[in-house]
Amino acid sequence: MENTSFVKESTTEDTGFLSLNPSTLEVIGKVNNTSKEEINATINKAKIAQKLWSARPDSERKEILLKVAEALQQNAQQLAEWITREQGKPLSGPGSNFEMQACVGWTQVPASLDVPEEIVFEDETRKDVLYRKPIGVVAAIAPWNWPLMIAIWQIIPSLRMGNAVILKPSEYTTFSTLEMIKVINSVLPEDVLQVVTGRGEVGSYLTAHPEIGKIMFTGSIATGKKVIEASSKNMARLTLECGGNDAGIILPGLDLTKHIDNIFWGAFLNMGQTCACLKRLYVHEDDYEKVAKALADYSSHIPMGDGANEANVLGPIQNKMQFDKIQDLIADSENIGADFLFTGQKPDSEGYFIPVTLIGNVDNGNRIVDEEQFGPVLPIIKYKTIEEAIAKANDSENGLGASVWSDNIKEAEEVAGQLEAGTVWINQHGAINPFVPFGGAKQSGYGVEFGIEGLKAVTVPKVISIKK
Q1: In this structure, is the dihedral angle defined by the CA atoms of residues 316, 248, 242 and 107, taken in order, positive or negative?
Q2: What is the pLDDT of residues 133-157, one digit of tens each?
Q3: How many CB atoms lie within 10 A of CB 252?
Q4: First to last CA, the chain
Q5: Which residue ranges does the record assign to the Aldehyde dehydrogenase domain (predicted)?
């Protein structure tokens, strides 16, 4: 995943910068940089609010969060339109309306789960009970690719377990996030959830603040390392999801008619701007041409353009920084003599559009394979043996997700067990679920989100030991 906070698009003055519609490059508005004094005041208010919030009965917090889910559902259409306007993903298909339904679901599930105390040891002499207590004030650093959904992943579990949250949205998607926070705060008690806005220095000051007890971050490896450095100042607990360069392996003989749609959307969901998208596809040399043709044929029928037009299901790259990076990777692939197996039709627009592109005649060691492209460009790599495919799939600093595609589930499971990733999907990719823990291996971060384990991650364990 790309840096959420360190590059600006354009500025008006030192106190702010402009947010643009990536489909049209029209100005949406000016984003202000929250000052250090304002951040300090925000944290002080959060500390007071957190004590009152955590003192409420657990059942009451659950009830309030279910009301938040209702409010999100009632305002889903207008929030989806904001996402499309500012982030770029279309209203149709797995786009902005899809993101809003995920926001509702990922609010309902944490509100429905229980984390009861646990008797971890008991005999005739003693009894030890493990409780889960709120940490305090959580700093949430959200990205631009799924700006509302990932913010919800950070906000709702933290609130559910009695914390207060200060959210720093990406500067690229500030306004859509602010609109969602207005909706949520129409239900929540005052100051339990607050927002600070601006560039990277705002996030840096927030995460290093001595009163922050937990940091939840989704973004690039480079920025994740800065968050780790910031946490050395306050010993804040961390949940880091630092993106991935997910590999998929198609085992020989796959019936593509059953799977091609899932392979396509596994790679090109949100224009490939998803941490757990399929970003490297390994195909047996005997099936290479068949797979390339099937993907090209499927891609040729997927309409791209301004997401406000409901006929489109693919949109633009969200910002110029990412647009330029993808263009650079495409140019590098041209320079090394890669095969361009398919290049889609680019819309007639000033926006940051890059058509779906399939690249062949590349291998590990080429930039398009080794670097996370985070866009609609998929390298397809040949392999001779399964062992070779596994070794190449694991040859990455990333380890967020991976997938295996086969009509023989037993064989797929054997391969899946050898892949180095936090989640390995079989015959699907990126299929996350609010009940199922999700997190990365290697430099894709540490800690998990979702489900019971995700709720535990925003608490501190407390043992009360009783002598009988």
Answers
A1: positive
A2: 999 999 999 999 999 999 999 999 9
A3: 14
A4: 52
A5: 14-463
Give, as one character, the DSSP assignment of residue 172. Answer: G
Give catalytic status of residue 229 as yes or no. no
Asked whether the beta carbons of 147 and 140 are under 8 A apart, the reply is: no
Quote the tokens at residue 430.
């990126």
294 vs 54, 260, 290, 303, 343, CA distance in Å? 54, 7, 6, 17, 14
What pLDDT shows up at residue 357? 98
Integer CA distances (angstroms), 29 to 85, 173, 174, in order? 12, 11, 10
- Tell me the sheet residues that pair with 281: 248, 380
**Distance from the Cα of residue 404 to its chain's centroid:** 21
Task: Indicate the average pLDDT of the chain.
Answer: 95
45 exposed, middle or buried (CB, 10 Å; 0-12, 13-18, 19+)?
A: middle
Alpha helices in 374-461 (DSSP H): 386-394, 409-416, 451-456
Q: What percent of the chain has pLDDT over 70?
A: 97
User: What count of other Cβ atoms lies within 10 Å of the Cβ of residue 260?
Assistant: 17
Tens digit of pLDDT for each residue in 337-356?
A: 999 999 999 999 899 999 99
Percent helix / strand / coil, the chain, rounded to 5? 40, 25, 35
**Packing angle between helix 96-112 and helix 76-86, nearest 10 degrees?**
130
Chain-centre distance for alpha carbon 40: 28
How many residues appear in the chain?
468
Full DSSP string of 48-100: HHHHHHHHS-HHHHHHHHHHHHHHHHHTHHHHHHHHHHHT---SSSSSHHHHH
- Pairing verdict, β 137-141 and 214-218: parallel
Angle at CA of residue 241, ends 404 and 172, nearest 5°: 110
Positive or negative torsion for Cα 9, 11, 15, 20 = negative
Catalytic residue among 99, 171, 241, 372, which?
Answer: 241
Smallest CA-to-CA distance from 214 within 69, 56, 64, 43 is with 43
What pTM was computed for the model?
A: 0.95
What would the pLDDT profile of 409-423 be if each residue is shown by its tens digit?
999 999 999 999 999
Placement of tokens 């044929």 in the chain: 297
| pLDDT, tens only, 398-454 | 999 999 999 999 999 999 999 999 999 999 999 999 999 999 999 999 999 999 999
When pLDDT is averaged across residues 389-400 and rounded to a whole number, the result is 98
Measured between alpha carbons, how far is 277 from 444 in angstroms, rounded to an integer?
13
What are the structural domains, with CATH classification, of the chain? 11-242+444-467 (3.40.605.10), 246-433 (3.40.309.10)
